Amino acid sequence: MAFDLKNESDVKEYVEKLGIEYRFGCYSEKKPDVCHLLGDYLESIKKDFEKAGKVFRSNCDDYGYAKSCLKFGHYSFLGKGKASSVDKGDAKQAFQYYTKGCELNDADCCLHSGLIMISKTKPAIIERDITKGMEALTKSCKLNNGTACFYLSGMYISGVYKNDDAKKTTTPDPSEFAVQKDMKKAFDFATKACELDNIYACANLSQMYMKGDGIERNEKKAEQFKKKALEMQEALKKQQAELKFQQGLGNA
């Protein structure tokens, strides 16, 4: 049957049939990718976050579908759809699901689990483990998550102290660092992050080339990455302006 998507009744019928197809594909055919689509359908179309959360959790636990682990991790962190018994969310439960998703090679899950492990939040979500956090971020970067590559670059630019309460001096003892300052590694991670369109990494690369940090000084390269960062900034501004315009039309 052909649907006229300009006709309101046809659209409603199409949406209902889509839900039926997703439920059949998930519950009868037990297809993990369709279960994830069902979760997205319940979330975005039906606005039933509680049911969506249950689908994402089950799809992660029962079928090991990494993208559903990520979704339920977000639900847990935010306390969305009663995914948590804690009103403001359950960060420890979120970490569990991010970790599981990372083990299943989801780059975003590795990013979130890594950031939680290196986090300085008090009270801590989990016991801080910079080494394992770096491993998760490195895996995320290898899986082409530009944000993870950027964070790693930043950590190598400044170094990371083992103890946050350590007295910062101009000539700190290397043994005080969990991550030693290493501008060559910082440059390498910034390069990959910029290739993955992380605007901040491109700006940092420009500065590195200008100063000769981690790479031989090259003003031409510095200008090249500065230009790329500015072009990305303009594209982002345009995208945000279009989004605001579309939201305005929706409220008109």
UniProtKB/TrEMBL annotation:
Which terms are listed as keywords in the entry? Coiled coil, Repeat
Ranges in coiled-coil conformation = 215-242
Task: Answer yes or no on keyword Zinc-finger.
Answer: no
Q: Which Pfam families match?
A: Sel1
Keyword Repeat attached: yes
One GO CC annotation = mitochondrial intermembrane space
Q: Which family does it belong to?
A: Belongs to the hcp beta-lactamase family.
Q: What is this protein called?
A: Cytochrome c oxidase assembly factor 7
